[in-house]
C-alpha cells in the first residue's frame, strides 16, 4: 500500500493547503520573528555592554545610576504592545478555526484501533480515505469506538482529539487539489503508526464522481471487485496476501484452511466463516492473534462481502 505523504515546501512547516493554514502560519511566524529579533537585541546589547564597560583598571568605577524612567517605560511598553498584538493574532485564527460556516459539507468520522472510517451524507462509508471537495467548507463530526485518538491533517493545520462517547468537530476549506496525509496523533496502541489515511482533495465535479464510484464499478467481475475492496477497505493494512504475518493472519491459502481458534476449537474456512469474520470478527478469534479486527457491519454491502469472498478464494 502507498503510504500517504505530506507535501513540504518550507523549512519549518508543511505546504499550506487550507484557508486556515495561512492564518495559523502567520501567528507562528509572528511569534518566531519576535523571538529572533528580541534574542538578537538582548544578547547583542548584553555582549556589547559587557565588553564596553568591563573593568580595566583598579580604579574603574561604575557611575551610580539607580534608574532611567524613559528607558524603562520604553522597554516595557514596546513588548507589551507586541504581546497584545500576538494575542489578537492567535485569537483571530482560533475563532476562525472554531466556527464552521453553516453551509459546511458534513462528514462523520470514526476512529478505532487502527483505522479511520468516513461516512458521507448519502451513507457511503470509506475506510482510510477521505475525499473532500476543493474550495468548499467541510466539517468533520468525529467520535471514537474505543480509546482516545486524535485526527491531524498537517497541511490543513487542523488537529482535534477523537474521544469515545463524545462528538468533537473540526472544519476546513481545502485549497490545493491533490493528496495529503491524515494521521492519528495520540498514541493509541501497537498499530498507532499505521493509523493513516489519505486525504484526496478533488475538484467539485471529480468529487461527485468519486462518491458514485465508492461501491466499485458495477461491471467488475466479483474477484476483481474483491481485490479492489481488499485495498480500499483497509484489509491490506492488517492482512497480507503473500504469506507474511501482519496484525492479522495472511490471506494466502485461507480458503479451506483448517483454522484453530483461541478457545481451541477448529473450523475449515468456508464462505460462512469468512462472512462471519467480516461482520462479527470477535465470534471466532484465530489462535495467536489479538482480537483487534474491527467489524465491517454496516460498512460493506452484501455484494461487496460476496466479492471479498470470491477474491479470497483466488489467493492461493
Ligand atoms: C486492524 C486490523 C484489521 C483489519 C483492518 C482487518 N482485519 Fe481481518 N483480522 C484481523 C485480525 C487481528 C484477525 C485475527 C483475529 C480474529 O480472528 O479476530 C483477523 C481475522 C480475519 C479473518 C479470519 C482469518 C483466518 O485466517 O481465519 C478474515 C476472513 C478477515 N479477518 C477478513 C478481513 C477483511 C475482508 C478485511 C477488510 C474488509 C479485514 N479483515 C480487515 C485484523 C484486521
Ligand atoms: Cu489512534
Average pLDDT confidence is 92
Provide the spatial order of strands within the biggest beta sheet: 3-2-1-5-8
CATH architecture heading of the largest domain = Sandwich
**Terminal residue distance:** 20 Å
Structural class: alpha+beta
Low-confidence stretches: none
Approximate shape: elongated
Percent of residues in beta strands: 15-25%
Taking Cα atoms only, what radius of gyration do you get, to the nearest Å? 28 Å
- Taken together, the total number of domains comes to 3
Q: Your description of this structure?
A:
The protein has 316 residues and is an alpha+beta fold. The chain folds into three domains: 19-98, Helix Hairpins (Orthogonal Bundle); 105-213, Immunoglobulin-like (Sandwich); 222-314, Orthogonal Bundle (Cytochrome Bc1 Complex, Chain D, domain 2), CATH 1.10.760.10. 35% of the residues lie in helices and 21% in strands. It has seven helices and twelve strands. It has helices at residues 19-52, 69-98, 204-213, 222-232, 235-238, 271-279, 302-314, and strands at 105-112, 115-119, 125-127, 129-133, 137-144, 149-153, 158-162, 168-173, 178-184, 196-202, 258-260, 266-268. The strands form three sheets. A five-stranded mixed beta sheet has the order 3-2-1-5-8, with no helix packed on it. Strand 6 (149-153) and strand 7 form a beta hairpin. Helix 4 crosses helix 7 (302-314). The longest helix has 34 residues, at 19-52. The model has no long low-confidence stretch (mean pLDDT 92). Residues 111, 149, 184, 186, 188, 192, 195 line the site of copper (II) ion.
Amino acid at each position: 500500500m502507498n503510504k500517504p505523504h505530506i507535501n513540504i515546501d518550507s523549512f519549518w512547516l508543511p505546504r499550506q493547503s487550507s484557508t486556515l493554514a495561512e492564518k495559523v502560519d502567520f501567528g507562528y511566524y509572528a511569534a518566531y520573528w519576535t523571538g529572533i529579533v528580541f534574542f538578537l537585541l538582548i544578547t547583542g546589547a548584553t555582549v556589547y555592554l559587557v565588553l564596553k564597560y568591563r573593568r580595566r583598571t583598579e580604579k574603574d568605577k561604575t557611575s551610580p545610576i539607580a534608574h532611567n524612567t524613559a528607558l524603562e517605560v520604553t522597554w516595557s511598553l514596546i513588548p507589551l504592545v507586541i504581546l497584545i498584538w500576538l494575542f489578537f493574532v492567535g485569537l483571530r485564527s482560533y475563532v476562525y478555526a472554531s466556527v464552521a460556516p453553516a453551509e459546511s459539507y458534513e462528514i462523520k468520522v470514526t476512529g478505532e484501533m487502527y483505522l479511520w472510517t468516513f461516512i458521507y451524507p448519502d451513507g457511503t462509508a470509506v475506510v482510510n480515505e477521505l475525499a473532500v471537495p476543493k474550495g468548499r467548507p467541510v466539517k468533520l463530526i468525529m467520535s471514537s469506538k474505543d480509546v482516545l485518538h486524535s485526527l491531524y491533517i498537517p497541511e490543513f493545520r487542523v488537529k482535534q482529539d477523537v474521544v469515545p462517547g463524545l462528538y468533537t468537530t473540526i472544519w476546513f476549506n481545502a485549497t490545493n487539489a491533490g493528496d495529503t496525509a491524515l494521521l492519528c496523533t495520540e498514541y493509541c496502541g501497537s498499530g498507532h503508526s499505521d493509523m493513516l489515511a489519505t486525504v484526496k482533495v478533488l475538484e467539485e465535479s471529480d468529487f461527485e464522481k468519486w462518491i458514485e464510484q465508492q461501491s466499485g464499478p458495477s461491471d467488475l467481475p466479483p474477484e476483481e471487485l474483491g481485490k479492489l475492496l481488499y485495498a480500499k477497505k483497509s484489509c491490506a493494512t492488517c492482512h497480507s496476501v503473500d504469506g507474511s504475518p501482519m496484525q492479522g493472519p495472511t490471506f494466502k491459502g485461507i480458503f479451506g484452511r483448517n483454522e484453530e481458534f483461541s478457545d481451541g476449537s477448529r473450523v475449515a474456512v468456508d464462505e460462512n466463516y469468512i462472512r462471519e469474520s467480516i461482520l462479527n470478527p470477535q465470534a471466532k478469534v484465530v489462535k495467536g492473534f489479538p482480537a483487534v479486527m474491527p467489524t465491517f457491519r454496516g460498512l460493506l454491502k452484501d455484494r461487496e462481502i460476496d466479492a471479498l469472498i470470491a477474491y479470497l478464494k483466488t489467493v492461493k
